[in-house]
């Protein structure tokens, strides 16, 4: 009897290890950590985002390698840096027709497709609209969304893999979810990977569905105490948080669908964003290409502040990740390719620069882990800065190549809000020298010329 029971347990364990998981990745647009309840937001409720942290893992030091849409999304899919990919700034409509991602660099959805997964992407693409850059040529068997970039929240015009374009009446945030739910139901009997890329909470923040606006119509949100902020900053914040609330409600619809379809225990759910955001933080609005929203300053302020590069990252992996797991190690969206393939147990020889955070999810200590995040932002559209960043646990060095007297050094341990630029402090010369050496090493390995005109 004991032998039979032991054999049964071995079989059950083997079946669990061979289980073919589904994976859903929800990616919002322009959402920093400060907007989510489980990261400290208290002006609105984000129960469904918070539930992923409660039932799974929350990453407290999750960053992106580029602080704007297109290069960050390209890195997220390929595990490669923006200068390697040739996508270093957000793509305008005209640029999208000539430039973008290429299947020369294998994406993790392509790896999943090669391993029998049905792969879908709904919503925002923003990685080029030329033929070589389209989702169908970069790993997706299904696409319904906008190839170019953003759109108005009530003017949704989506294209599919057959290049058929149609306007869809309603609220974009709900429309993306409706399509996602249909995809889940249609593919529930086969392994699938679904990327739901909301345009929210990107500007314009509204109008949002009435059910969401009703929750915040009387909200008086907290804002930064940065001096001389424009008078409409609190209104901007309220509208932005309304859009975050709309995403949370729709995330709840996706989670409920998984439960109704019997897929909850066999689906990994990942929630993150393409980069962070500012509304009054550091006196700015937007992200790495932030603009001043103060009465005494105007124009673009290129930056790689924590608020611009930090993103929410929560992962629910039923039966594998212990509920309430907290991951404090530094991660970056360049880690997604090795981590998703790692979670799914897929082997791939695809070159990348990321780390597989699967052991961190399981409470294990990896043999090696990063001690820094390397960032790039080679601007084309809003300014001519060519930024490179090294962020360690305690320090951040940002070089603004192509412009003079803009370099930055922050003591993150004693000044986590990055309020004092120490770049000209002679006592920190050794710190700067060590960080610069690490930055130079990264750039040399990538053949990265920050002074390049391309």
Largest sheet: 10 strands, mixed
So what's the overall shape? globular
Strand residues, percent: 15-25%
Poorly predicted ranges: 1-17
CATH architecture of the largest domain: 3-Layer(aba) Sandwich
Overall residue-averaged pLDDT value: 94
Helix and strand composition category: alpha/beta
Cα-based radius of gyration, to the nearest Å: 22 Å
CATH class of the largest domain: Alpha Beta
CATH topology of the largest domain: Alkaline Phosphatase, subunit A
Number of helical elements = 13
Amino- and carboxy-terminal Cα gap: 71 Å
Helix content: 25-40%
Give the number of domains: 2
How are strands sequenced across the largest beta sheet? 7-6-5-4-8-1-9-13-2-14
CATH homologous superfamily annotation of the largest domain: Alkaline Phosphatase, subunit A
Protein name: Sulfatase-like hydrolase/transferase
Family: Belongs to the sulfatase family.
Pfam family, one: Sulfatase
Keywords: Calcium, Hydrolase, Metal-binding, Transferase
